[in-house]
Amino acid sequence: MSRFDSYQNSFSNARLARSESGILEVMLHSDGGTLLFDGYTHEQFVDLFHCIGNDKDNRVVILTGSGKAFMESISPNGFDFSTPQGFDKIYREGRKVLMNILDIEAPMIAAVNGPLRLHSEYILLCDIVLATRQAVFQDKPHFDLGIVPGDGVNLLWPEVIGSVRGRYFIMTRQELSAETAQAWGAVNEIVPNDRLLPRAREIAEELAKLPPLTTRYTRIALTQKLRRIVDEGLGHSLALEGISAAAVATSR
Question: Confidence band (pLDDT; 50, 70, 90) for 176?
Answer without folding.
Answer: very high
